């Protein structure tokens, strides 16, 4: 089977190195926060399935029943012809938990499509307001927004940028804004202000009449870049000043992961569009959504009066089975008070990791919110000097974790944990043991 997997299944990544393609055990079943491979090894899952989608953990009968029942009742009809009930109910439930006046969902199949649709919505908004020249998007270094041409063009991965060139025009990179790496001598507040000023300077350089939107996660998830407290508020003000819309990409962090339904809530700001995917269906079936504010929708439907969002649709837009899964997940989050669980257990885990990190000479920073936690490893704790990239320290940690049957992830030298929202106190205690052991072993 392993040989077949190398021959017939092409995994992620642009590498053509066959050893890379062969990496990774073959998973056969999963339950709760555990995943079992073909050899009977059982891994502790601190990554909600590996990419933050398994919000409720694995093997939920309630979601399976809801999905099966929807398949039996009506598996699919096209949104071009009919609206379906589960999509109406899900959109209404999302509006109840979304911040501000974000009321209207456009459902697609995954995160990349949600981002793509959001950018189309934003362009349509400006066109409708008589500003068709507003077409550029600003995004940030270290950002990741998906694999379509738009997603790749707004993502700073150098692999993407090299292999998939030429990318779409009109995407402009901003610096990341990330408290741990702020210039010495600057307060968090001053740094947040400096980052905001840099955004405004870039807008003026490009010409505000050409800038449509800013594509930015409230908390960039891959490296868990928690921003200075004033940064997003200033970003919001700048967007308003120049009639630029903020797409808050919450594909990773949305739907309860950070201890609030949406990450932007931590900073008291309301985006114009939020994108979600991953966690909304708990990994049972794929779904994505661009959730637009009433203010944006009012502009979009003003002249045509058709009530149709001006974005391109997909065959599987608002798939009823996916929307049924989304409803089951939102029900469970509400009924089991999972956002509170994430906040409580996340705070405990963060505090434990910080206390442990203080005594470890290579733990530079432990940061995060709720069940999104990053541990930045550095060569020198005092000077914050990073390890040389070629040492691949982060990669060694995730490999050590897998050897010890513990799933953790590293992006660069930031080791990340993002467990299912249902993880109990015993689970997060075991995750603390798992990640500290993996780091100590890799650095050993
Ligand atoms: N945006 C963000 C912030 C993401 O984390 C991801 C996926 N990692 C995407 C977009 C793309 O989502 P998908 O992989 O479902 O296309």
From TrEMBL:
<comment type="similarity">
    <text>Belongs to the class-III pyridoxal-phosphate-dependent aminotransferase family.</text>
</comment>
<dbReference type="InterPro" id="IPR015421">
    <property type="entry name" value="PyrdxlP-dep_Trfase_major"/>
</dbReference>
<dbReference type="InterPro" id="IPR005814">
    <property type="entry name" value="Aminotrans_3"/>
</dbReference>
<keyword id="KW-0663">Pyridoxal phosphate</keyword>
<dbReference type="GO" id="GO:0008483">
    <property type="term" value="F:transaminase activity"/>
</dbReference>
<dbReference type="InterPro" id="IPR015422">
    <property type="entry name" value="PyrdxlP-dep_Trfase_small"/>
</dbReference>
<dbReference type="GO" id="GO:0030170">
    <property type="term" value="F:pyridoxal phosphate binding"/>
</dbReference>
<dbReference type="InterPro" id="IPR015424">
    <property type="entry name" value="PyrdxlP-dep_Trfase"/>
</dbReference>
<keyword id="KW-0808">Transferase</keyword>
<protein>
    <submittedName>
        <fullName>Aspartate aminotransferase family protein</fullName>
    </submittedName>
</protein>
<dbReference type="InterPro" id="IPR049704">
    <property type="entry name" value="Aminotrans_3_PPA_site"/>
</dbReference>
<keyword id="KW-0032">Aminotransferase</keyword>
<dbReference type="Pfam" id="PF00202">
    <property type="entry name" value="Aminotran_3"/>
</dbReference>
């Amino acid at each position: 089977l392993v040989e077949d997997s190398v021959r017939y299944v092409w995994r992620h990544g642009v590498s053509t190195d066959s050893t890379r393609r062969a990496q990774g055990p073959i998973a056969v079943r999963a339950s709760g926060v555990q995943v079992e491979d073909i050899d009977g090894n059982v891994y502790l899952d601190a990554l909600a399935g590996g990419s933050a989608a398994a919000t409720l953990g694995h093997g939920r009968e309630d979601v399976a029943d809801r999905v099966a029942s929807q398949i039996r009742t009506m598996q699919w009809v096209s949104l071009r012809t009919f609206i379906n009930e589960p999509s109406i109910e899900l959109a209404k439930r999302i509006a109840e938990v979304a911040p501000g006046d974000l009321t209207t969902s456009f459902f697609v199949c995954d995160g990349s499509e949600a981002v793509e649709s959001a950018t189309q919505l934003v362009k349509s908004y400006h066109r409708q307001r008589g500003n068709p020249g507003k077409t550029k998007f600003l995004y940030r270094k270290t950002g990741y927004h998906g694999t379509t041409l738009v997603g790749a063009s707004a993502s700073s991965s150098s692999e993407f940028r090299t292999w998939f060139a030429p990318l779409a025009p009109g995407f402009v990179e901003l610096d990341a804004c990330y408290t741990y790496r702020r210039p010495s001598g600057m307060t968090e507040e001053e740094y947040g202000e400096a980052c905001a000023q840099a955004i405004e300077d870039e807008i003026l350089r490009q010409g505000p009449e050409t800038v449509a939107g800013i594509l930015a996660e409230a908390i960039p998830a891959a490296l868990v870049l928690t921003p200075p407290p004033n940064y997003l508020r200033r970003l919001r003000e700048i967007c308003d000043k120049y009639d630029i819309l903020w797409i808050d990409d919450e594909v990773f962090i949305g739907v309860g992961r950070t201890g609030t339904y949406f990450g932007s809530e931590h900073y008291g700001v309301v985006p114009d569009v939020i994108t979600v995917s991953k966690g909304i269906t708990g990994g049972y079936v794929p779904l994505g959504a661009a959730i637009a504010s009433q203010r944006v929708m009012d502009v979009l439907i003003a002249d045509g009066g058709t009530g149709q969002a001006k974005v391109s649709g997909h065959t599987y837009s608002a798939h009823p089975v996916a929307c049924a899964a989304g409803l089951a997940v939102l029900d469970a989050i509400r009924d089991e008070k999972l956002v509170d669980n994430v906040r409580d257990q996340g705070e405990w885990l963060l505090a434990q990791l910080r206390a442990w990190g203080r005594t470890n000479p290579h733990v530079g920073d432990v940061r995060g919110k709720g069940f999104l936690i990053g541990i930045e490893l550095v060569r020198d704790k005092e000077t914050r000097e990073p390890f040389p990239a070629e040492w691949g320290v982060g990669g060694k940690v995730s490999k050590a974790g897998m050897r010890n049957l513990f799933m953790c992830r590293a992006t660069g030298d930031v080791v990340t944990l993002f467990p299912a929202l249902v993880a109990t106190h015993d689970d997060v205690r075991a995750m603390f043991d798992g990640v500290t052991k993996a780091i100590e072993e890799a650095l050993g």
